[in-house]
Amino acid sequence: MSNIPKNNLLENDPLHADTSPAGRSDADADALDDLITRLSERRPPAVNWDADFDVDIDRVITNLNAQHSSLSLYIDRHWDDLDANHLARILALYGQNATRIGHLLRDRCTILGPPDDPGDVILTEALAITGAILGVYLLGPDGLDSLDAPRNQIPIDFDHLIADLDDKQTRLSRHIQDQQHDWSAPHLSRLFTVYGQNATRLGRLLRHRRAMYGEGLDQLNSITAENEDLPDLQELLDSLDEPE
User: Fold this and answer.
1) Residue 174: which of 190, 159, 189, 191 has the closest Cα?
2) How far apart are CA 163 and CA 204, in angstroms?
3) What is the dihedral of CA 229, 235, 240, 244, to 10 degrees?
4) Strand partners, 138
5) pTM of the entire structure?
6) pLDDT by residue (tens digit) across 130-183?
7) Residue 87 and residue 153: Cα distance in Å, rounded?
């Protein structure tokens, strides 16, 4: 234990120095002002919660969906040119991006509220126009005015996003059936893995859609019955060892 008096230890400590007007010199005052200035410069800026941030959730979704659509076109054009490894990697990326768009749409619900169902919007417009033609207020006296009411519609076609992933799954299923005897076991298992992962992602997108609109997607009730004919993985792997 040091025998140095405590007062000597704190003698040059600005936090314990006498900062009263009578106990500090001009130099001490300047040093203290300089310390306060430097500390204030390091302080993070205050958050202005009322500011309009230049990040629009609809723009974020639209931009990612545009890239996703480009990737879809690339896959369709080069499907037959890709080997098993590259096809598996690019289909995995495609499924991941589809799921991320689904997550963004759920985030949009949190930010802007549940969207209007596209079917309800079309029905409202049809009833309003039909009522105006027939002179019958099917939606009440303000039926036509309802056409100009603000809509909370998502900026992309969510049903198309789901259907496109389902189409890729159907094509991959057929591709595996047609090429199963030309691939090695590692290549085949890799494609099966991607197929299973994207099937799970497809289910997640359908769950997101139901959470947003409260109903399922009519045209995908069966989720391609053709996929049920996908051969068993072990059966395919065993067939690789059979003599021709």
Assistant:
1) 191
2) 13
3) -80
4) 140
5) 0.63
6) 666 766 666 655 555 555 556 778 999 999 999 999 999 999 999 999 988 888
7) 34
